[in-house]
C-alpha cells in the first residue's frame, strides 16, 4: 500500500462516525428520564462526541415502558425491539449494545434470536445481567411496597404456573435450583435462551458473531440473588447454598451456548466492580468499558 493510501485510510478512520450504542434498561427503570437512563445517554454522548445512542423505549410512553418491564413478556419485548432496530437507518453499519440488569439478558436473547436479521452487533456489555436467572427478589425497583410483596409471593410460590410466566416478566427468568426439571420444562424465556431443553444452533452462531461479550458483576450486589449469575454462575443443582462457576456448569462443560468457544477465542470478558447493583464510578466505566469496547 502506498504512503498516500495509508494517509487517506487514516483520515477516513479518524473522520468516521463512532459506532452507535443501544441501551436496554432494567426492571423499575425507563429509557429516557433525566435521573434515570437519560443521564447515562447524555454521559455517553459527552464522552464519545457524535455518537448515536438509542435508549430503548418499550411501548408508546415512559409509563408504558416502565410497566412493560414487569408485565410484557420478554419474548414479545424481543420481537418488538428486533423490528425497531432493523428499521433504524442509523444502525445500518452495526452497533454496540449495553444491557442494564434484566435488560442485559433480554439483549442477549435479542442477539441469539434475531442477530442474523440485524446489522452487526459488535460488543454486548452486560451490567449486572441475570444470565442464569435469579432465586430471590429482595428489592423490586420503584414498585410500591404492596406490589413488591405481591411480585415476591408470586415468584416464591407460583413462578412456573403458566399464567404467572405469561403475565410477570421476572417469573420468566426465575431459576429454582431445588427443582431443575420443573424450571427447564416451564421456564418460557431463560431455559430457552440458555439452550437447556434442546440445542438451537442459531443461538450459538449468533452469539459467537459478537466481537466481545463483556459480563460485569457487582461484588456488593444486594439485589440480584445470587450475584454470581452476572457471570453465568449459579447454585449447584439440588440445593441453594453451594455456588458453582460458569466453568463448572453443564452450560459450559457441554458448551450449550458456545461460551467455552468464546472464552477460548478471547471473546468472553469477565469484569467486576465493588459497588452495589448498577453502581459504578464513571471513570471506572470509561477505563474498563468505554475505551476498550465502545470507541
UniProtKB/TrEMBL annotation:
<keyword id="KW-0732">Signal</keyword>
<keyword id="KW-0378">Hydrolase</keyword>
<keyword id="KW-1015">Disulfide bond</keyword>
<keyword id="KW-0325">Glycoprotein</keyword>
<dbReference type="InterPro" id="IPR002472">
    <property type="entry name" value="Palm_thioest"/>
</dbReference>
<dbReference type="GO" id="GO:0006898">
    <property type="term" value="P:receptor-mediated endocytosis"/>
</dbReference>
<feature type="signal peptide">
    <location>
        <begin position="1"/>
        <end position="16"/>
    </location>
</feature>
<comment type="similarity">
    <text>Belongs to the palmitoyl-protein thioesterase family.</text>
</comment>
<dbReference type="GO" id="GO:0008474">
    <property type="term" value="F:palmitoyl-(protein) hydrolase activity"/>
</dbReference>
<dbReference type="Pfam" id="PF02089">
    <property type="entry name" value="Palm_thioest"/>
</dbReference>
<dbReference type="GO" id="GO:0005764">
    <property type="term" value="C:lysosome"/>
</dbReference>
<protein>
    <recommendedName>
        <fullName>Palmitoyl-protein thioesterase 1</fullName>
        <ecNumber>3.1.2.22</ecNumber>
    </recommendedName>
</protein>
<dbReference type="InterPro" id="IPR029058">
    <property type="entry name" value="AB_hydrolase_fold"/>
</dbReference>
Amino acid at each position: 500500500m502506498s504512503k498516500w493510501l495509508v494517509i487517506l485510510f487514516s483520515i477516513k478512520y479518524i473522520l468516521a462516525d463512532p459506532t452507535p450504542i443501544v441501551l436496554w434498561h432494567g426492571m423499575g427503570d425507563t429509557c429516557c428520564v433525566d435521573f434515570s437512563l437519560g443521564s447515562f445517554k447524555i454521559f455517553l454522548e459527552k464522552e464519545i462526541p457524535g455518537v448515536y445512542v438509542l435508549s430503548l423505549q418499550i411501548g408508546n410512553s415512559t409509563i408504558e415502558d416502565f410497566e412493560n418491564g414487569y408485565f410484557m413478556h420478554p419474548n414479545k419485548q424481543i420481537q418488538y425491539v428486533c423490528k425497531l432496530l432493523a428499521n433504524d437507518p442509523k444502525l445500518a453499519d452495526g452497533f454496540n449494545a449495553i444491557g442494564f440488569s434484566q435488560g442485559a439478558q433480554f439483549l442477549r436473547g435479542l442477539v441469539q434470536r434475531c442477530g442474523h436479521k440485524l446489522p452487526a452487533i459488535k460488543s454486548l456489555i452486560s451490567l449486572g445481567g441475570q444470565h442464569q436467572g435469579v432465586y430471590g427478589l429482595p428489592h423490586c425497583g420503584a414498585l410500591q411496597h404492596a406490589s413488591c410483596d405481591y411480585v415476591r409471593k408470586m415468584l416464591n410460590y407460583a413462578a412456573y404456573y403458566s399464567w404467572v410466566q405469561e403475565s410477570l416478566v421476572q417469573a420468566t427468568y426465575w431459576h429454582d435450583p431445588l427443582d431443575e426439571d420443573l424450571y427447564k420444562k416451564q421456564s418460557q424465556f431463560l431455559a430457552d435462551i440458555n439452550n437447556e431443553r434442546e440445542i438451537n444452533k442459531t443461538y450459538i452462531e449468533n452469539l459467537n458473531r459478537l466481537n466481545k461479550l463483556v459480563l460485569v458483576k457487582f461484588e456488593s450486589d444486594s439485589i440480584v440473588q445470587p450475584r454470581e449469575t452476572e457471570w453465568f454462575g449459579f447454585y449447584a443443582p439440588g440445593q441453594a447454598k453451594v455456588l458453582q462457576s460458569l466453568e463448572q456448569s453443564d452450560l459450559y462443560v457441554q458448551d450449550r451456548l458456545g461460551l467455552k468457544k468464546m472464552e477460548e477465542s478471547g471473546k468472553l470478558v469477565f469484569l467486576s466492580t465493588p459497588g452495589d447493583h448498577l453502581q459504578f464510578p464513571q471513570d471506572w466505566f470509561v477505563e474498563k468499558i468505554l475505551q476498550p469496547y465502545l470507541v
